[in-house]
Amino acid sequence: MNVTGAVLEKDAGGAEASQTLTDGFHLVIDALKLNEINTIYGVPGIPITDLGRLAQAQGMRVLSFRHEQNAGNAAAIAGYLTKKPGICLTVSAPGFLNGLTALANATTNCFPMILISGSSEREVVDLQQGDYEEMDQLAIAKPLCKAAFRVLHAEDIGIAVARAIRAAVSGRPGGVYLDLPAKLFAQVMDAEKGAASLVKVIDPAPRQLPAPDAVTRAIDQLKSAAKPLIILGKGAAYAQADDAIRALVEKTGIPYLPMSMAKGLLPDDHPLSAGAARSMALKEADVVLLLGARLNWLLSHGKGKQWGAPGSKRFIQVDIEPREMDSNVEIAAPLVGDIGSCVEALLAQIGPDWQAPPADWTGALRDKVEGNVAKMAPKLVGNTAPMNFHTALGALKQIIKERPEAMLVNEGANTLDFARSIIDMHRPRKRIDVGTWGVMGIGMGAAIAAAVETGHPVLAVEGDSAFGFSGMEVETICRYELPVCVVVFNNNGIYRGTDTDPTGRDPGTTVFVKGSRYDKMIEAFGGHGVNATTPDELSRAVNEAMDSRRPTLINAVIDEAAGTESGRIGNLNPQSALAKKT
Ligand code: ADP
Ligand code: MG
Fold this sequence. Notes:
Mean pLDDT: 95
CATH architecture of the largest domain: 3-Layer(aba) Sandwich
CATH class of the largest domain: Alpha Beta
Shape: globular
Strand content: 15-25%
Strand order of the largest sheet: 4-3-5-6-8-7
Radius of gyration: 26 Å
Number of helices: 23
Helix content: 25-40%
Bound molecules: adenosine-5'-diphosphate, magnesium ion
């Protein structure tokens, strides 16, 4: 028998011997539990079906999804929210590949997760003998994650799980792949030896203190600034050093700009928030302190028009990953360490003699913020049908203001861009979106993890196209009775619903069935569906869903002509030279 506690009766030389056994299944579960990992996101199937079953029987929370990519996205967000690796469990080859997109996305976003996939036996894979779902998964996963491990012997499960956990959360967090061949699960060993083989990871993400001279260098740069700016990234949100970060901003009096998932780290309506004056802040600042934010495409690589005159900036960068420094431009003061330790070290050098930034800088930014907010305000009201992005989001903005504990998930093109700038966030780590890749399809996985990990109601604001990538998971939401309210911004298509096929044969490549009723989807699974045509209807339905915590899907009817191509990143689309000529 392959069950912990089973007693093997042996007849050794006439005498009766007994031995308590354990097996690979139980060792994987015990190793995770020993390390306080108690939730698994996955899809059952060969060879891991029993692993899910047994984990559930052993008290773990096991959430079964309809597609591995969504389970993987859930695991990644669980990792982001908890600083413990989220676990995604998949079957071999195709299931593994489905989960791999999420693993790569987690790695890109610096979210800790572990993809655990069942696999075929090495011998058969290596000789390419055509096993059921044969694939060299370890080799395929390696370039797409931080670390990848395979376990061949039950007695190595403990150390492998420990290595996977440490690799995922220490240093720059990321995705880890753990390959578990089918036969491993049924391997039997002595239970006591099995228990002794497990490893509890002590201090999985050790603090990394910055060097004192690097701190002094950073402070010197800040002191020399006439127009300093702090940019908060999702690395800062992940670090959970909320109080220290707030103290740094408030003690220095330096205006800050949150990247999208760092919104709410300090409230968006904080007097030092330059969120509504982003262009001006980036263009005019002279010293920029990056806190857990990379100078990648989302910040125009730290150069170009958006950043004002060439050579007008000096950067201080706080990051746990030394190789991030000078990735795009020269970093005048690199500060390598964990955000919490670095911010505390900076704070320690900010005494009563600290000079707040010149008032003409902070005052000009403040004026710009107030001007832009006032300009936006009238667009956000009006009870029109159909809604446009502004009127619909105006309603949702108010709801998040009144319910700051709610989790907000957001994806799409226009739906993402408008929601990011319109909906203020008031608490840390409440906004989950498309991240570094701007990937579509994170929506339902993120919403499920947000509900499971925080227990707070979740509002998922979804473009109709984005929703399609993970929409089947509304069944999962209903099955686990999660407090998720999905609002589909339905403008009949990708970007908008007005494209046509010039030949007249087919629908345009970016349009969907017009007038679709996404709300009907959730009704199929016992959830609550609402078709909302005005901001008032939308408000009422969302408030009801948040109060009742009942799985709800609202089809929000948006003017099909309201969107723009690729939202605010239309400039990334290459233009056809031939189309321009003709
Ligand atoms: P955003 O997209 O919000 O700008 P990025 O994903 O570009 O954020 O940047 C996050 C950065 O934060 C990464 O470079 C990562 O190495 C860093 N980071 C993640 N966790 C920590 C931490 N605990 N301490 C310091 N830096 C961290
Ligand atoms: Mg759309």
